[in-house]
């Protein structure tokens, strides 16, 4: 199998020939709800497609920069430079997710109407520019708390454009039978970069400073721009009437399709529970555990998220090897239940003050967290026709916007009850929510 990173042509160039069973049209399968064919090629099967490799290389650059930023930003808020609090952690994270609520209505429509490669180039270039600006503010000594809020908000806007376009692009560059494999490899990349980026950011912040760290993230983002530029995608269906009214009608069509499709409706419901009560762990609870409970400092916080990423890599690569094509509903409930349980167990472990035990549990937490994201995305992509994928993926981006609610509530709950009790409450809600859905909604168990 040829794996040259710099071949020419579209994403099918390095795929097996038609005589070897490769699909002749990757953009639009003959029947978007037909049975999925057996997959071939093993754990790295999706790498045989040129454009997937470029998408993956761009994801490496973007994920590395994002994870470094995710470590540096909360540490900057808690540092003497800003002297922020747990409430500020939650509100800044909320500021980053608010644009997904406002722009999410249109981001999926934009991804279906306009060239997805161009959308990604705009989003990634904008993200790099914002990090250059933040680095300049820190290095010049003029940084203030409101700058961090503004940076988080604008970066959230670019991210809301990036996600639907990038995710809906995957079925155009790999065949349907490799979809779960491709999404899992992308998730493994994100988590590998979480290991590298989180650990590196903690050390860089400690030894060279915040400004230099943000400057490095901006430079790394340029790599994501370059690899995105190299993509060569099949043409999308053209839309003539690109008015605001038609955009709203198109979004309404996407919502109606999602609501009328049980697999999409219940995956979105599970994801909402996950984003509100589960995702506050990384942006609100983890830095507080590192600073106030475990007392392991900046590099310790980086280590915590690196270990979450290590578990995520194990979970994602396991899923990539399985390339699960049946019983994904059961799998979703299993991994989400495990995630909620591990949030509780990790929080309880911190009372023992045995740091290696708590850090080991973080690895298990990551093993459950990442497969949920992978399975949810693969079910959504698999359940939507090509012309609707951007809008369907925008629905889960809208779900991500409710992290605003969870992050804000997490900050206030941690400030009022303490970080350990707050984390146990949030983990318990995740676990109870999955149990209720699993026992009362048969449609979830039927998701294939």
Outline type? globular
Query: How confident is the prediction overall: mean pLDDT?
Result: 81
Q: Helical stretch count?
A: 16
Oligomer classification: single chain
The number of strands is 0
Cα radius of gyration in angstroms: 21 Å
Largest sheet: none
Compact description:
This protein is mainly alpha-helical and 448 residues long.
Name the features.
448 residues, mainly alpha, Growth Hormone, Chain: A, 16 helices, 75% helix, disordered N terminus
Structure overview:
There is one protein chain. This protein has 448 residues and is mostly helical. The protein has one domain: MFS general substrate transporter like domains (Growth Hormone, Chain: A, Up-down Bundle). Helix content is 75%, strand content 0%. The protein is built from 16 helices and no strands. Helix 1 (50-78) runs antiparallel to helix 6 (210-229). The longest helix has 29 residues, at 50-78. It starts with 49 loop residues before the first helix and ends with a helix. The model is unreliable at 1-39 (pLDDT under 50).
Topology:
Layout lengths: L49 H29 L7 H28 L2 H24 L5 H29 L5 H29 L2 H20 L14 H17 L1 H16 L2 H14 L3 H26 L5 H22 L5 H29 L5 H13 L1 H15 L1 H22 L1 H4 L3
Helix pairs in contact: 1-4, 1-5, 1-6, 2-4, 2-7, 2-9, 2-13, 2-14, 3-4, 3-6, 4-13, 5-6, 5-10, 5-12, 8-11, 8-12, 8-13, 8-14, 8-15, 9-10, 9-14, 9-15, 10-12, 11-12, 11-15, 14-15
